[in-house]
Amino acid sequence: MDYKDASLPVSERVEDLLERMTAEEKIGQLIQPFGWKAYTRNDDGTIRITEEFKSQLMEGGIGSLYGTLRADPWTGVTLANGLSPREGAEAVNEIQRYAIEHSRLGIPILFGEECSHGHMAIGATVFPVPLTIGSTWNTELFQSMSRAVAAETRAQGGAATYSPVLDVVRDPRWGRTEETFGEDPHLVAEFAVAAVRGLQGESLDSHDSLLATLKHFAGYGASEGGRNGAPAHIGMRELHEVDLLPFRKAVEAGALSVMTAYNEIDGVPCTSNRYLLQDVLREEWGFDGFVITDCGAIHMLTSGHNTAGSGEEAAAQALKSGVDMEMSGTMFQTHLHQALEQGRITEDDLSKAAGRVLELKFKLGLFDRPYADPAWAERIIGCKGHVALAYQAAAEGIVLLKNEENTLPLDPNVGTIAVIGPNAHAAYNQLGDYTSPQPPGQIITVLEGIRSRLGNTADSRVLYAPGCRIQDDSREGFPHALDCAAEADVIVMVLGGSSARDFGEGTIDLRTGASVVTGHTESDMECGEGIDRSTLTLMGAQLDLLQEIYKLGKPVVVVYINGRPITEPWIDEHIPAIVEAWYPGQEGGSAIADMLFGDVNPSGRLPLSIPKEVGQLPIHYNARRTRGKRYLETDLEPRYPFGYGLSYTEFRYDGLKIEPAVIPIGGEATARIRVTNTGARDGAEVVQLYVSDLAASVTRPEKALKGFQKVFLKAGETQEVIFTICNEQLELIGLDMKPIVEPGEFRIQVGPDSTSGEVASLRVEG
Fold first, then answer.
1. What whole-number distance in Å separates Cα of residue 314 and Cα of residue 310?
2. How would residue 391 be classed by pLDDT, with cut points 50, 70 and 90?
3. Which active-site residues does the annotation give?
4. Which pTM does this prediction carry?
5. Domain residues of the chain, as ranges?
6. What are phi and psi of 338, to 5 degrees?
7. Is domain 398-608 classified as CATH 3.20.20.140?
8. Could you report the per-residue pLDDT of 543-587, keeping only the tens digit for each?
């Protein structure tokens, strides 16, 4: 059998295998049942494969399993009934071995896992969410983090991940804002490339490489009203310039899997959008991987979008439009054979889709080396090196929004510190959505980080009170919180939101701050997938608690832990120091504590604009010049602009030069600028380059990010930062919907954020 000959080209092996397959076996390659339902765990950590899985395998095969090692309240997999890193690898091996040995052709299974900010399995490292990563503006760090995620996942047999999320967020009320890198297509595109390089590595068949899946294709972050899966009202030019750019760059970097979005664009669901999946993705961009749906998306074609009147019609629409695999639905499994009999699809359609799936299985090395190494899984998952990466990502992602009168950093000898708020000591609130159950002591909270930083004196100097919950209006915790605050010399208020699902960890006694084990969690979830909001204010009694504590006249620092921006004008106006940490992951408490005490100089910069109030939305910095006039009640300027963030030192920009100042179309110029650390502390600065096209054949954004570099400067040090400006930085989508560079004047801005910096001119001549 040629397909088993590893010396032959992949194309020949695929062709040989397809010729041997029945229509049912081809359909089997296009389905992906829930992996955690394929087995049950025995008391000794071994597994028993279910009869349902065996039966489905015999009926036509199973191409892929979803979330075999996923652990969370949705799957019902807990610390008690879940698998350790070694056990997980052994379980995947057993399932794989059964599939190979008990199917007619011995085709291996592709195990797909969730890895939004770490492998979603018990024991894996929990990194900061993508919004925190976007705030680092450090793509090299993210590439290293992605390599770590790939290593941990592949060590257990997972060969594909459903990340990175490349949605460009346009309305942060959307609950999945935390999963994005921000509001700018160039910033998202740079992280997209880093993700593909990090996850897929040098070779897909490596023991530490993972198939990256770009999602959600496309326009998912531009949904109406920030509601999950709502229509995206996008013109074709904006679609290509904004929403599709990160996907195109990731495909150019070698990405080989794409996931369709739930939403529709101009009446056409993305799951059956031939223009997106065939014309753009495959024909224009040359994508040669496979396309997978989001969970249950094909079913929405009959119940939701209602573009199909039957299951057969829905399955045919998706397949004919370019979908190759259905994630965790039953439409392909149930209806594709009937669609074939009805003539809605052909066997050639099945062969194309199955061939794409099989080709990736060969490239991943699954036919030749299908099994994981349990000993390696035990060593690499959650290792010290990965924990250190999680800390660095959290530390670099913290954004200092306000620091009047040098309130920060705190003096370690300040005296008594009160750490107050619902997120001060709530481990799961620090992690974001798509998180597995965590063993005790795995997550370092802000309270624990501060206590650890102060060492032996912490017991007598650090007071704690939750004060209130995220959503509950109860004030029963106020007296204890006010008592703690009254005794303190400085107060750290840890407020924000939560994407924590019910992990059965119990609750907190607001009157004492003690943990109460109840067998369920009193859910405070106000962010995450499917949790969209109509406002961006703090929920519950949080603002009331802060205002009561503020009346004591003590120094107050606010630390936000959350998955979307917070708009609270009173806090912005009254609190001298405000820190935005988003969901910083398992090491977040240590990183925040080190930043508060000055061991870490904050270098995070905002990857999205924070409005003054929700009525300003949408408020992304790169709006077109024609965005309209101001409101009666307020202007169109954000509270904190895109790219903004403070440091414990100061940076000076000077000497911007564009050389040459005039270039032809297709030519190249360099932008050079000197950046000096004028303060007394070492620090990192994010140098940002923006381009404005002053006159064009179509309306343009007032400015657009086209380059950035994160540079470390010692106190007093000067460094010249150089950017290249060429077609990529100057082009637009013209009247004919083709990329073009038009002659004319361009304004080049280089500085610390989207609103300030040195400015120079560049002229392009035709």
1. 6
2. very high
3. 294
4. 0.97
5. 398-608, 651-765
6. -65, -35
7. no
8. 999 999 999 999 999 999 999 999 999 999 999 999 999 999 999
